[in-house]
């Protein structure tokens, strides 16, 4: 088989392989690198001997991700401020199966727990294949997935929020937070709301998460003074990693994404990405 034949059999699988890699790594760029590495290995493989290309490539991608996670954990120990996954702004027709809070919960799992959970619970892979992929027997793979499920249960959404309602709340949050209307903002927030802001040490951002409605109101009261001088500009509203939110150009020309976790009509989590290294793939949204 030629290189063209290899590409022809690989390219239809590329989006699904990229989804696996991104959910394993939380990085669009790293996921793209892993998928490209998998393609190079596919080129070098005797493809006539492969009965199930998708299963074979799924194993290759997962194993490459497990190798990457070892070094990624060391880098995150020295990361400046809260670490958030790179945001993915979904196209209109896309439905995200792994939301941002769940991606953050996956960070607390061991690499093998993460792989077992994602392959089985998200991508529907049977435990025989999961075990073969991660080098464990099926019973051990089942136990890893079960343990992961217990750890991430609280991060999984309790019910589906209609897309239109979520974007309506996102627009109301943007208007209240930028105009300085703290009364309207208070009405949108849950009492135990939390905020994570990832600047990676490259742009100004909170070095620690903020928890509780009163501290959130204080923060936005301070920020309102800056917005009075230079207002944010909304590039677009949409779903970001499964959550309603928006992409903005902030004072100083900083590109930013804001994703909102919402329960019972109130905002419980605010996830702000400001690190330019994690927003390069959104360059076209300007």
UniProtKB/TrEMBL annotation:
GO terms for molecular function: DNA binding; sigma factor activity. Residues 12-73 form the RNA polymerase sigma-70 region domain. It holds the Pfam family Sigma70_r4_2. InterPro entries: ECF_Sigma-70_Domain (IPR052704), NTF2-like_dom_sf (IPR032710), RNA_pol_sigma-70_dom (IPR014284), RNA_pol_sigma70_r2 (IPR007627), RNA_pol_sigma70_r4_t2 (IPR013249), RNA_pol_sigma_r2 (IPR013325), RNA_pol_sigma_r3/r4-like (IPR013324), WH-like_DNA-bd_sf (IPR036388). Transmembrane segments: none annotated. Interacts transiently with the RNA polymerase catalytic core formed by RpoA, RpoB, RpoC and RpoZ (2 alpha, 1 beta, 1 beta' and 1 omega subunit) to form the RNA polymerase holoenzyme that can initiate transcription. This is RNA polymerase sigma-70 factor (ECF subfamily).
């Amino acid at each position: 088989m030629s290189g063209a034949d290899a590409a022809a059999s690989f390219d239809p699988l590329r989006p699904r392989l990229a989804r696996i890699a991104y959910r394993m790594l939380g990085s669009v760029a790293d996921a793209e690198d892993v998928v490209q590495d998998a393609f190079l290995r596919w080129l070098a493989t005797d493809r006539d001997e492969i009965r199930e290309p998708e299963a074979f490539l799924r194993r290759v991608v997962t194993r490459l991700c497990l190798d990457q996670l070892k070094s990624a954990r060391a880098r995150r120990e020295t990361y400046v401020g809260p670490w958030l996954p790179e945001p993915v702004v979904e196209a209109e027709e896309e439905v995200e199966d792994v939301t941002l809070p769940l991606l953050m919960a996956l960070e607390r799992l061991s690499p093998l727990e993460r792989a077992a959970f994602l392959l089985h619970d998200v991508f529907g892979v049977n435990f025989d294949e999961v075990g073969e992929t991660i080098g464990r027997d099926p019973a051990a793979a089942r136990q890893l997935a079960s343990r992961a499920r217990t750890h991430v249960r609280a991060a999984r959404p309790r019910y589906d929020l209609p897309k239109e309602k979520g974007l309506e709340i996102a627009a109301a949050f943007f208007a209240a937070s930028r105009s300085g209307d703290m009364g309207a903002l208070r009405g949108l927030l849950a009492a135990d709301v939390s905020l994570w802001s990832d600047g990676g040490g490259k742009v100004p951002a909170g070095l620690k998460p903020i928890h509780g409605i009163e501290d959130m109101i204080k923060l936005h009261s301070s920020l309102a003074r800056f917005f009075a001088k230079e207002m944010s500009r909304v590039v677009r509203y949409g779903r970001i990693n499964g959550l309603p939110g928006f992409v903005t150009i902030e004072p100083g020309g900083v590109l930013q994404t804001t994703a909102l976790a919402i329960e019972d009509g109130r905002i419980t989590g605010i996830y702000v990405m400001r690190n330019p290294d994690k927003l390069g793939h959104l360059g076209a949204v300007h």
